[in-house]
Amino acid sequence: MLDITISGGTVVTPSGARIMDVHISGDTIAAVTLPGAEGFTAGQTIDATGMVVAPGGIEPHAHIGGPRQPERSGAEPVSRAAIFGGTTTVLDFATQVPGHDLLHAVDEAAERWKGQGYTDYAYHPMFGNRASETDIGQIPELVQSGIPSFKIFTTSIRPPSPQMEDRRTDFGRLGSIMERVATSGGMLLVHSEDDEMVHYNYERAEAEGHYEWWHMNEVHSRESEDVSFRRVTRLAELKSCPVYFVHISAIEGIQEVARARSLGMPVYGETLHNYACFSAANYREENGMKYHTYPSLKDESDGQAMWQGLLDGTLSTVATDLVSTTWEEKIKFKTVADVTGGHNGIETRVGIAYTEGVAKRGMSLERFVEITSSNAARIFGMYPQKGAIAPGSDADITIIDPSIKRKLTLDDLHLEDYSIWEGWDIEGWPVTTLLRGKVVVEKGQLLGSPGDGQFLKRSISTAVTSRPAC
Fold it and tell me: How far apart are CA 358 and CA 149, in angstroms?
C-alpha cells in the first residue's frame, strides 16, 4: 500500500501541467497517474481539487545566522518559515573566516544546521579576502565530497569598519579560483560589483552630503554592476568556468547575462523577488532602509525587466539573499555606509512568484516551477532528486491554493517582527507542504519538526557546466 495520494490537483511535472494524482511511498514519488487510476491504494489521501501541486521550492541563496552572527536568525526559525512558504530545500553559505580554511567553514555550517532544519539543506563555501593557494586547492576535495558550488565577492561592499568583514576577491585570485572550479566540475556564484567604483561612490556621497540610506542606489550603481559583470564574464570565458550571478539588480546585468548565454557560455542569472517588486523610490519612505539588500534597489523599469527576464528565460532563478534580523536591527543603521542588508522574505518567495508571475503576468506553471525550484536543482546538482514531481524523485511538494485573494498580514508570516510584504495583494498562496513524503504543513498548520531536514550531497551535471542548460 502507498502512504499518500495527492488527488485531483493540477500537477506540474517535467512534461507539463495537468490534472493528475501523485502517489507517494516512503520518501519518494512512486507514480504520477491520471485521476482515479486503478491499482493505487494509499493510507492517506490529500484532496488537491482546484489546487496547484508543484515541486517544493528551492531557495538558492540564504545567509543563516549562527554563534558568530547572533543578530541573524538561525536555521530553526528560517527553515520553519521556509516550510510554511512552500520551500523544502535551503542553500546556505559556509563562510570562511580569517585564520581558517574552507573545510572549517563547512564544519561550522554543519554544526549550526545539525538538528535545526525543517527543510533539507546544503551550503556554498564562501571565500574570504585574500584566499590562500591552500584554500583554493580545497575546491576539488569539496566537489568530490558533494559540495560543488562556491561564492566570491568582487567588492568589499562597504567602507572598512568593524561591522563588515572585507570579503573581496581580487581578479588574480578569481582567475585561480575559476580554474579550479572549472576543472573540478563546480559552479561559481559571484556577487559582482566594481570595487573601485563602489568605494569612489562612497567617497563622493560623503563629500556631497548624500550619506543617508536613500542614496544607496547611487553608491551601488547600475554602472558598477555593468562593468563588473562584463569583466567577470570575460574572465570566465578565458577560464571556461560556469558562473551564477547572484541578486541581479539592474537591466545592465540582465543584458550581460543574455549576451554571454547567447554565445553558449554556462552563465546563469538570479534575481530577488523584492528587486522585482520594489524600487529605489521605496528607500524614500519612512524607515525605507527596511527594503535594502545589497547591491541595491534600482528603478521601477529595472524591476519590470527582472520579471521579463524571469518570464523569457534570460534569468534562471528567483531567490531572497536572506539575512533575517529583527525590526530593531534592520532600522538600526541609517547611512549608505552601514545600513543592514538582507531580506527576511524566505517565506514569501514562492507565493509572491506565483502571484506576480502566474496570476498577474500570465507566467506558465511550468516556468513558475523552473524559477522557484527546478532550475536551482539543476544548476546546483540536485535534479531530479529535487525540483521534479516524477517517479523516483523526493516527495517534496507544495500545494498552492489559487483561490486565496487578499492582502498579506504579519499574522500570515512566521519570521521576525516585520515584513516588507505586509499589505501586499496576493493571489494564490502555499497551504500544504510535504518534505520527502512527510506532511510538514497542512492547511497552514505546522506538523514538521526541527531535525526533519537532511544535508544534501550534490553533483552538477556537465550539461549545466558546459552550456546554458536552464
Answer: 30
Residues paired with 64 in a beta bridge? none
DSSP H helical ranges for 420-470: 462-466
Q: Give the structural domain span for 342.
A: 57-383
Helix (H) or strand (E) holding 198: helix 195-207
Spell out the per-residue pLDDT of the chain, length 470, in tens.
999 999 999 999 999 999 999 999 999 999 999 999 999 999 999 999 999 999 999 999 999 998 888 889 999 999 999 999 999 999 999 999 999 999 999 999 999 999 999 999 999 999 999 999 999 999 999 999 999 999 999 999 999 877 678 899 999 999 999 999 999 999 999 999 999 999 999 999 999 999 999 999 999 999 999 999 999 999 999 999 999 999 999 999 999 999 999 999 999 999 999 999 999 999 999 999 999 999 999 999 999 999 999 999 999 999 999 999 999 999 999 999 999 999 999 999 999 999 999 999 999 999 999 999 999 999 999 999 999 999 999 999 999 999 999 999 999 999 999 999 999 999 999 999 999 999 999 999 999 999 999 999 999 999 999 999 99
Given a contact cutoff of 8 angstroms between Cβ atoms, the answer to whether 166 and 153 are in contact is no
Whether residue 462 is contained in a domain is answered as no
> Do strands 16-25 and 2-13 pair parallel, antiparallel, or not at all (unpaired)?
antiparallel
- Phi-psi domain of 91 (left: phi exceeds 0; alpha: psi -120 through 50; beta: other): beta
- Rounded Cα distance between 9 and 427, Å, is 17
Would residue 104 count as lying in a domain?
yes
Do 368 and 358 form a contact (C-beta atoms < 8 A)? yes
Q: pTM value?
A: 0.98
- Tell me: do 318 and 263 sit in the same domain: yes
One domain for residues 256 and 285? yes
CATH number of the structural domain spanning residue 288: 3.20.20.140
